[in-house]
């Protein structure tokens, strides 16, 4: 490149290379599609909440109970099978001949594990109404929740398989196929859910669940088809000998993934316990809680995607023996997650009614009573958003190191040793009600985020 002057052509000095800038670009290139995938997949749950909001406060409350229990089990399954991503990333980072076989065996074992988990967990969901009945919930809400989840439970098997394939493709730095499929699935889910709930079938709350099940089955079929026709991915032969049971790879996934699954259930269980506890205060606080959770979860999809990118970037650097690159990958990802969630917190504080209006029809039965309660909850959601984002990205970086046991202990301690007892004390002991539960969220997540970042700093310094 040259710059024209009045006397001569002067060459500009080359821009100095910056490993940090390169890492930032690489992380953004990988995390951007992963964030979009997460948003699209969460959009299935969020769009269901929007459709239920058009049915009234009682269906919103029923959907919140049913979905929270479903997600508690489903997130545990995702946590366990998420070990596929760091293991595939490490194999890809080594870059040696024969690692295509390691990728194939890991994916195959992950699909087997997802199938086994779904087979075990689905019968529990069938008895949702009986499981929640002793917990003081409104009987009418419980009946609708039971009907909703008996259909929604069939979402689990294809969804777990989709998540395994998505993790493997992210580790291979090919997130394009699951992104395309996820983006196409979101409007399909809305259309099918609206058709079955409000159209000629007029199935109400059950129709919303049916639309999601059909959408996920079609999404999985589409992703398998795309993988099979992709010339780059064909070299891994991901579906080769799929019938073979690989105990060695399955065992490694379980060893790495079991603590991840427990940590995921610990966090999801915190929100499930809060939802159940909120139901004891009545339908209005429960509906407000459901709306607030949808807003918080939507924001969380971004740092969650950045954390998944951190797992891949750290895992590939680990496989390549690039210690400095490994440390950069984690630091850049944590900084990006922190910055985004600070922006989310400001938005939640500045425009709560606008955000709530996205998930609650102001004209729906009972909505007028729900709005002010949800505004109060959203103020607490803004406070814990920053901690939630940081802990998610730090956890992703640690998973890239395949460090999962200590983070599991940290999660259990923060969520259940701090968050739940403090939330219960403030909710009932101090008379804060639902706001006390949200205050417990803030304290538990803050403790977890501090401990996970400290863990990352110490481990990455030793590599």
TrEMBL record:
Q: Which GO biological-process labels does this protein carry?
A: monoatomic ion transport
Q: Which GO terms describe its molecular function?
A: antiporter activity; xenobiotic transmembrane transporter activity
Q: Which residues cross the membrane?
A: 34-57, 69-89, 109-126, 152-172, 179-198, 204-228, 331-351, 366-386, 406-430, 436-457
The answer to whether keyword Lyase applies is no
Listed InterPro entries: MATE_fam, MATE_MdtK, MdtK-like
List the GO cellular component terms.
plasma membrane
Which keywords does this chain's UniProt record carry?
Answer: Antiport, Cell membrane, Ion transport, Membrane, Transmembrane, Transmembrane helix, Transport
What subcellular locations does the record give?
A: Cell inner membrane
Superkingdom of this entry's organism? Bacteria
Q: Write down the membrane topology.
A: Multi-pass membrane protein
Q: What is this protein called?
A: Multidrug-efflux transporter
Taxonomic path: Bacteria, Pseudomonadati, Pseudomonadota, Alphaproteobacteria, Hyphomicrobiales
